[in-house]
Design a protein that fits this description.
It is a single chain. With 287 residues, this protein is an alpha/beta fold. It contains 11 helices and 9 strands. The longest helix is centred in the C-terminal third of the chain and has 17 residues.
């Protein structure tokens, strides 16, 4: 069996590749530039662009399945639909689509709306599919090292209700299981962590691990957006603000049975944020 993986330069897909190789699967990686990624030995790479149907049709020739992760970009919907349409044309045996948790609840968030539209296209076309819906990644917080360790602030506006974030290792494991196992066609899997994370709760975890006070920065969304504008593009900042605004207003918590369902899929309980933070803190202190 040969599986094509997109988005291989990102955090998630590198882990997906590792999981697939561990299972003895032949993996082919889609890259945009020949020098774009450092991949494990034996991984076949082909250059293609999800906005170029001609190149993507060539890339999908001779593969059985596709793990489709499209970057959060302004034309994400177009890229996703091109891949889905070509997968259908080439009669792939399965497409596992990397969507987002509660996409239907956050239709005002651009990248959620794009992913929901791709989900709908998958359900409406004659193509075997599985959808994985990850929540916010634990590993996003690795970029907060200076804010946490130097400024003593956890700045992500998680609010008081909180979210069920997820470890990317659990995402990769779930994706590999769906791609290589039986009984996953037509299924949608919600990928979340074991416990709910509020802003104050996460700050408390870091305080304990680093043995110094870490405070939650609060959820002033205007201030959050202003700070984000120093680090990213205007459209991306707006998109992320809308996501966290929705989190504060509507919640980003697991539904009844979600944790148990993921535990059954993985064969173990989803990883805890505190365990992820403990690993990160150890590395930060060691540097």
């Amino acid at each position: 069996m040969t599986i094509r993986v997109t988005g291989v330069t990102g955090t998630v897909c590198s882990k997906v590749i590792d999981e697939l190789l561990h299972r003895g699967v032949k993996v082919r990686a889609l890259i945009r530039k020949q020098s774009a990624a450092t991949l494990p030995v034996g991984i076949e790479t082909l250059v293609g662009d999800l906005l170029d149907p001609v190149s993507i049709e060539k890339v999908l020739q001779g593969v059985d399945k596709l793990y489709l992760l499209v970057a959060v970009v302004p034309d994400e919907l177009t890229q996703g639909l091109i891949a889905v349409d070509l997968a259908k044309r080439l009669k792939l045996r399965q497409i596992v689509y990397h969507s987002v948790f509660k996409a239907e609840v956050f239709k005002d968030v651009p990248h959620f709306a794009s992913k929901l539209a791709v989900e709908n296209a998958l359900r409406e076309c004659d193509l075997p599919f599985t959808i994985v819906r990850p929540n916010y990644f634990y590993q996003n917080d690795l970029a907060l090292k200076d804010a946490i360790t130097k400024a003593g602030v956890y700045p992500v506006p998680l609010g008081t209700t909180g979210i069920f974030a997820v470890d990317v290792r659990d995402i990769a494991e779930a994706a590999a299981i769906a791609l290589t196992g039986d009984g996953h066609l037509g299924k949608t899997y919600h990928l979340i962590g074991s416990d709910i994370l509020s802003g104050d709760g996460v700050a408390s975890i870091w305080s304990k691990l680093l043995e110094k006070p870490i405070r939650y920065g609060g959820h002033d969304m205007d201030a959050f957006e202003e700070e984000m504008r120093t680090k990213s593009t205007s459209w991306s900042v707006f998109d992320i603000r809308m996501m966290f605004q929705g989190c504060l207003e509507r919640g980003f918590t697991a539904g009844k049975g979600d944790v148990e369902a993921l535990t059954k899929l993985l064969g173990h309980r989803p990883r805890r944020y505190e365990d992820f933070a403990k690993e990160a803190a150890s590395e930060w202190v060691a540097v």
